[in-house]
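Lecture 7, part B: from sequences to assemblies.

Below are the input chains for today's worked example.
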Amino acid sequence: MNGWRAWVLVLLTSPSAALTPVDAPLPGNLVEVPVAAPGEVFIPPAMVDIPEDKQGDLVKLGRRIFIDTVNQARRYGGNQLSCANCHLSEGRKPNAAPMWAAWGRYPRMGDTPGEVKTFESQVQDCFHFNLNGQSPPLDSPEMQALVAYSQWLASDAPTRAELPGQGFGAAAPLAGAPAIAPAAAGSATRGQGLYRAQCLVCHGSDGQGVAKRGGGYHFPPLWGAASYSAGSRFARPAVLAAYLQANMPLGRGGSLTPQQAADLAAYVLAQPRPGDPRVGLMQRLRSAQ
Amino acid sequence: MKTSRWILAGAAVLGLGIALAAYWQARTPPEIVAARKLGAELSQKGRDGVPACASCHGAKGEGNAAAGFPRLAGLNAGYLARQLRDFGREAPLTGAHFDKIARDYSKTPRINLPYSMLTPGLRQDAVMSPIAKALKAAEIEALAQYYGALDFAAKPLPGDPETLERGEDLALRGKPEYGVPGCFSCHGQNAVGVGAVFPALAGQPPQYIIEQLNRWQAGSRDNDENGLMRAVAEWMTEGDKHAVAAYLANLGPQAAPQ
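Predicted structure of the full complex, as structure tokens:
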């Protein structure tokens, strides 16, 4: 940040630079932003390569559910969010928890001792905590389709391996990607200013995003009754900050510093959102005292 | 008997009230109607110093696919007004000359504090800038209101299936390995536009879309929010531009979701 200010100062005060109009406007600054390096990340198969058989049909159904969860998996959804609202580019974008990297990482140890997390149970958790809905049963067509879609995206991807671009990029950062600071303390006040400058264009001054006409969101709500619950992993400041730094603003991932991402996460998480579904009303009242 | 009559009368009064309220809500405010009238006159006839918009953009604002003049009909009025203001703005005097950004995409520096974050934004064009400078603020508003209210239907253009397939891939998914989002993620489902910031792309002439992407890359158009469009354009190759422009040109406002 200070770099470009110094440049502008030098340019404006240098005597040789007389005020001459130029046809091309100035580049804004001289900050280089590292991005996901192509060639380093796994590239999932293209849509036209979906096989023309029953498995292929299940993959197509899975993709439709993934991008339009509101309408295609209505009976399990609680709010209007879709998978693709956070798993960007239909679950393909590196560092936005891509499905091709997630598929090969299960089953694995869960958070609690003795717990084994399977891919299906992770999908169930997503429905429960992020979509504020019901967990689809293992044999439901929705679950089978989502599993088929993820498996197809991970065709030929190595399993049981740490892939570059998996998760939010914190575990295996790409070459040149910014190192994510371990949970810098964010300030909601600074975050509010940043929100107004960088996020308000899409997510709105009230953070409620922009809804699609047929249900669902173009730009998802960041807080309030329509957003994900406090039981979501996204309600943890460090996780949200890592996601923000890797992916936001859309198309300019990596442009926020770790501190800025932590500030934004602090601001977003300071707003009201649905409670953790595991915590009952009485428990919440008791802990509020 | 008596009671039901009273209920009927109450329902009738209530229905009338609701109809009146709905009419009052739905009616176009008179100042907008006046603005559209002024805009219609100006767009068809022009005035001294301002040629008629219809001479290039078509009688109903449908654009000119052969010449690459964009369609204006049905675009967001706020977007149109902002573009006219940006066309009419003078580039500020600066003391340095910067070469245009190199076309070698692998070596393109990622410029990350866009000019538009410091200034209201610039959009320069040899034809449009003099016209926009001659327009008054009220006329800009009138033209925006007029064209924003026009209907538009896209005419299908012939296209190579492989190009269209690649274009659809870019429009829906972008280039995730480069961190580039698809067009639809900001410009709305089927690129119908979202608000005054993200304009409709459906049915725009392919030459126009390619030319604008070239200008984002070169820096001669720099009036986006937060440098969002510039960040996307920097990663587009000539083939990408061609494919996505061909796909978007064939999208009508009522195109079916994929």
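Note for the exam: Residues 6-35, 171-178 of chain A have pLDDT under 50 and may be disordered. Keep this in mind when comparing with the next example.
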